[in-house]
Amino acid sequence: MPIADASQSLLRCSIQFDLHTGAVATWVNHARVTPDLSFVNDGWGERPVSFTRNKYSPFNLGVLTYASIGASGVSTLPGGVADLTFGAMRLSSTLQYVDAGTGDQQPQRTTAGPVKDSDWWTTGPGVFACLPMDQPAHLDPSPQPNAPALPDLQVPWLSATSGQVGFGLFVSKELGNSDTIGGDSLERLTINCGRVFSGPSTDNYGQAIAVGFVYTLRLEDVVAQFGAQGLSSYNFGVSYPVELRQCQFSWQTDASIYSFGQIARADRVGLSYYGNTALKAVRSTLTFRDIFCTDSAVCESVVRMYECSAQFDAWTIDFEGAATVPSDSYFWASLGSDVGPTQLALRDCQVGTAGPEAVAVRLVAGNANAGLPTSSRNTGWCTIERSFNTFFDRNTLGVVAVDGPLWQGTFHGLPPARPELVLTTASPGASARIGLNGAVPPAVTVPRPAADPIPDLPGLVGYYQAETLRLPADGGGLRLPNDGEAITSLTDLSKAHNDGAAVRTAPVYVSKQVNGRAALRFDRNGWYQFPSMHGATGGGTLFLVTRGNPIVDTAPGGASLRRYGLAWSANFLAAPPAASNTDWAVYAARYTTGAKRFLDLWANGRHYDSRRRDTNGDIKFATPLLGSVNNGLDVFAGLVAVAVFVDGGLSDGQVDLVNRFLLHQHNIPV
Predict the structure, then answer these.
(1) Calpha distance 265→289 (Å, rounded)
(2) Cα 150 from chain centre
(3) Measured between alpha carbons, how far is 117 from 121 in angstroms, rounded to an integer?
């Protein structure tokens, strides 16, 4: 809006968008002025202004321009005028003023007559924000009988009239513009989200405050009520730092706070009567202190973090009755990927009752990649100090539950007598690496089964172990291969005697690679093929002990069970593979035939995927291969210790028994 005198200390400005006609009208100090439409949502002045109904649209509430202060031909704003302060503000979802459309300086009018200053202090039709900045945050009297009082900022997801239009408060910056890098804040503000003027509604949708692409945002003494999320993220950008002080988030149906890509810190914050979680975070770094949480009727985990690092101090979570308790955990955290080791610190946190299957802290590695480490996804560290020792329910499973060896840490303070301090939830699981007062338990593997079950498997058509390889000696008999010696023939230990023949570059023998046992090192241009191996059932089961991800294919070029590229597949049924490029692991894949056809996958004994397609065809065993074909699509330069081929789908019990045997034989921790 053009300002005639930029030295004026107080301006009463109005802008009105007609979403049906596309008309834009503006007034300054109750006189109509012509707006510069090039600043309406990024350059609409170059074409006719148009509007489209949508869920939400971020907008700039106020931006100083050269034209607005009467400047021309300058590259910087003159000193002393680059400031814009709102002394009061009102936002409405309906047209407020009569647009005469007859040029500048026309008086501002409503249907009731000329606009007066006092009109701005009334709520008005469709108003969802009314901020008198010279008063403390408060609830205005309701404009309708028997309706709830309205807070300073009303964010109805469903409008009182049409039931279609949504509103929200969004904070966003253009990160590349130095003019926009600065402090933003919301202070002494009450926000009501998801309840319409006609009264309380169960349709609590939307985000009260959504943050995206922000450098420095501070919320102090802000109350957000209702909606799906109180403080939220509306894009996949990063925001930092986001600071919360003395704020309250209540009655959100999903989460009080949802953080994506934020570096956030909070102090003296209340989270009340939320949905599944009070705090949900993804790929964020969090520091939250002095937090009070009430109970929730449908809570799974009070805090749920995906690939985050966090420090939580002095949390009090008040679950008292058995009817409303967390069903899973109070704090839930998964390992990060591509962000280095995951750190979680809990200090002086006290909680209440919980469900019979719940724990105070659940540390998860297997939500992605079946709990296997990679070069960019390795370990997690959890420190717990002086926590969960006052009111924690003794009838729960344990204080800490971990699902594998990648999480480790320490518990400092008096250990609970009941429940268990730490337990493992992996299947199979042996490592529970949270130690008491500084001693971290080592990673361990499963107990040894009675004997090698593989030779007696039904349908076994190939069993290969690098450790058992022997070559002809010069004086007769057999000898151990030398380190680095090429292995041109791979001996089958099964009764089928389907030996493998090396193609192109033969793999080489290397001793003492995994638990003192030998392995075969493959070049990027070599593999074994098994020309005499055949199958008759239409199904199959494979086991591999490897470091790296070799190609394995039961019928190259045909309907086969194979691991190739980015998938395990059985004919036309496929699933993404779990894999580690740093550690040894035991892999298993099974395709079962019949009326119900499944592709099932295991990694280190963990059953991590199952896909069904009953119309899928049979697979074949026809000159299978193992290694690397180097066709430009998938190559393998790694180690293989064991390979097992079975014609037919083994039972769950048989697969579990073989997995456990191979895990123990190679001392692979789980």
Answers:
(1) 8
(2) 35
(3) 8
Do the Cβ atoms of 100 and 26 come closer than 8 Å?
no
- 235 CB-near residues (< 8 Å, 6+ apart): 172, 212, 213
Distances in whole angstroms, Cα of residue 59 to Cα of each of 36, 334, 362, 509, 552: 15, 35, 40, 65, 54
Confidence at residue 255, expressed as pLDDT on a 0 to 100 scale: 94
Give me the sign of the Cα torsion angle 479, 480, 486, 489.
positive
At 560, list the tokens.
Answer: 């086969």
Q: What is the DSSP letter of 403?
A: S
Distance CA 421, CA 403 (A): 14
Give the C-alpha separation, 10 to 287, whole Å.
Answer: 40
Say if strands 639-647 and 460-465 run parallel, antiparallel, or are unpaired: antiparallel
- Given this model, what pLDDT does residue 81 score? 42
Q: Which of 605, 615, 614, 618 is nearest to 653 (CA)?
A: 605
Residue 98 in contact with residue 110, Cβ under 8 Å?
yes
Other C-beta atoms lying within 10 Å of the C-beta of residue 260: 20
- How many residues are given for the chain? 670
Q: What share of the chain is helix, strand, coil (3-state, %, to 5)?
A: 5, 40, 55
Write the pLDDT tens digit of every residue in 626-668. Answer: 998 866 567 888 999 999 999 999 999 999 999 999 999 999 9
Copy the structure tokens of residue 147.
């309706």
Q: CA-CA distances (angstroms) from residue 302 to 245, 293, 631, 645?
A: 20, 8, 49, 46
Distance CA(548)–CA(422), nearest Å, equals 32
Asked if 326 contacts 358 with a C-beta cutoff of 8 angstroms, the reply is: yes
The answer, yes or no, to whether residue 469 has pLDDT greater than 90, is yes
**Contacts (Cβ under 8 Å, ≥6 apart) of 300:** 276, 277, 326, 327, 328, 329
Segments in 523-651 forming alpha helices (H): none
* Tokens describing residue 201: 């509604």
- Contact assessment for residue 309 and residue 285, using Cβ atoms and an 8 Å cutoff: yes
